């Protein structure tokens, strides 16, 4: 119970979790079973391998709930990360917009603010351009056959708007992108003036609106674990 509202929270602390280890908050779609997502989505294996505390959250209302959960575990404040799929992707983006200092990096999957499920724009706004000067490392992943705009990057798509906004927030040039392919994945990387890859977008070939263990592995191994959020709000990139 938080702020008088019942919350559903699944927590997993691996046996070798350090006294003050990294914490990962994963926001679920409203109709996804948290236990199934934990095992089938690949996060159980990631946590066991990396010694990372995992907190799966559903029906939360925002950063206040995250703060309540953080009080319960000895989590390193500089290594707290936020990811989510579908509706959970929307929550991830909302927290990225409103509470960037709480997390070191963000990993939304399968949905972008400003798109409708059936395709095209929705009445719901796109993510607001941040004006606080705080970096927000983010990796957006969409399936080739996902909902909304799927993985399209035409200039008026929600994905392109998202990338332009986040490049501006992170000091990256949206017109300078490095692309590489690896199997079913097409990766676009945007770097700031110091060469730090603060914004990424990936297309997964032939994928509908779903989540896979490979996404969990990539998000953690190639992105989250490389960032730290400092007390002053700045980001340290470990390369």
Which residues sit in consecutive blocks of at least 5 with pLDDT less than 50? none
**Rg estimate, integer Å:** 17 Å
Mean pLDDT: 83
* H-E order: EEHHEHEHEEHEEEHEE
Q: Give the % helix.
A: 10-25%
What count of structural domains? 1
Give the terminus-to-terminus CA distance: 39 Å
Q: What portion of residues belong to β-strands? A: 25-35%
Query: Could you name the CATH class?
Result: Alpha Beta
Largest β-sheet summary = 9 strands, mixed
Count up the helices: 6
Shape: globular
Going by CATH, the homologous superfamily would be: Alpha/Beta hydrolase fold, catalytic domain
**How many strand units?**
11
**CATH architectural category:** 3-Layer(aba) Sandwich
Strand order of the largest sheet: 1-3-2-4-5-6-9-8-7
Structural class: alpha/beta
- What is the CATH topology assignment? Rossmann fold
Quick overview of this protein structure:
It contains six helices and eleven strands. It is an alpha/beta fold.
């Amino acid at each position: 119970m938080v702020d008088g509202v019942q919350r559903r929270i699944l927590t997993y602390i691996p046996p070798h979790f350090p006294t003050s280890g990294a914490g990962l908050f994963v926001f679920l779609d409203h109709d996804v079973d948290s236990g199934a997502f934990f095992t089938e989505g690949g996060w159980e294996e990631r946590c066991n391998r990396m010694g990372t505390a995992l907190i799966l959250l559903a029906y939360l209302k925002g950063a206040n709930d995250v703060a309540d959960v953080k009080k319960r575990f000895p989590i390193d404040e500089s290594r707290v990360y936020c990811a989510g799929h579908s509706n959970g992707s929307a929550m991830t983006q909302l927290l990225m917009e409103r509470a960037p200092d709480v997390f070191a990096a963000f990993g939304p999957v399968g949905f972008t603010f400003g798109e409708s499920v059936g395709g095209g724009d929705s009445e719901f706004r796109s993510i607001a351009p941040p004006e606080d000067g705080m970096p927000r490392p983010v990796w957006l992943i969409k399936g080739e056959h996902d909902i909304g705009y799927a993985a399209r990057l035409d200039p008026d798509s929600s994905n392109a708007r998202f990338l332009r906004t986040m490049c501006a927030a992170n000091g990256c040039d949206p017109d300078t992108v490095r692309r590489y392919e690896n199997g079913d994945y097409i990766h676009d990387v945007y770097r700031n003036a110091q060469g730090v890859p603060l914004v990424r977008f990936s297309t997964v070939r032939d994928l509908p609106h779903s989540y896979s263990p490979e996404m969990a592995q990539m998000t953690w191994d190639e992105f989250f674990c490389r960032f730290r959020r400092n007390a002053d709000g700045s980001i340290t990139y470990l390369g």
